[in-house]
Amino acid sequence: MRKAYALARAELGTLEWAEGSNPKVDAYFDEVGFPTMQDDTAWCAAFVGAMLKRAGLPHTGKLTARSYLDWGRPVADEDAREGDLVIFWRGSPDGWQGHVGFFVRFEGAHVVVVGGNQRNQVSEARYPRDQVLGFRRMTRTSRAQSTTLQAAGGAAGTAVLGAIPVIGQLDATAQIVLAGTVSVVVLAAAWIARERLKLWAEGIR
């Protein structure tokens, strides 16, 4: 999510054109499967979808903001963090209209988000907190996770197997030193695996 959020912030200032259609906005539609759409169509969901896709995360493939209420997993308001998606209602809480953007922070009774089609541009904007329908978050999963775990397990296994033939030939003190060294290698491999998986899940790598 952090990578998608960073990509969204990099688009700040992208404007709808007074005449014609801004190719950058057209590209958001294109990336989520709507190549014939232009910036005279509401594009907040297209913007979010394009940023998610660029970050290697799935998107809903829809142009309705509320489609993201079924995306990822729900996050409680008090647990919301920078880069989560926020979905708002427009018109009526029970209607179909809405808005979606990337959460930045709370400001009193408002929520600040980075999103598209906010005053006809990509911007930071404030929306009433009482219009929030939900916060959502998704982490990436793939075979890269098992590959990372296999690599870490291989490093730990090599350290253990390499120590077995040697440890019986050592005196008590040397055995303790060797066992401590092997433990450090195993713990380091586990820590590296955890950190790499965390970065992958957040869409950073």
Helix content: 40-55%
The fraction of residues in strands falls at 15-25%
Widest sheet: strand ordering:
1-6-2-3-4-5
Instruction: Please report the total strand number as a whole number.
Output: 6
What is the overall pLDDT average?
84
Count the helices. How many?
A: 5
User: What is the CATH C level class of the largest domain, in words?
Assistant: Alpha Beta
CATH architecture of the largest domain: Alpha-Beta Complex
Structure in words:
This protein is of the alpha+beta class. It folds into two domains: 2-137, endopeptidase fold (from Nostoc punctiforme) (Alpha-Beta Complex), CATH 3.90.1720; 143-201. It is built from five helices and six strands. The chain has helices at 2-10, 23-31, 44-54, 143-167, 172-201; strands at 73-75, 85-89, 98-107, 110-115, 123-128, 132-137. The protein has a six-stranded antiparallel sheet. β3 and β4 (110-115) form a beta hairpin. The longest helix is centred in the C-terminal third of the chain and has 30 residues, at 172-201. It is elongated, with a radius of gyration of 24 Å.
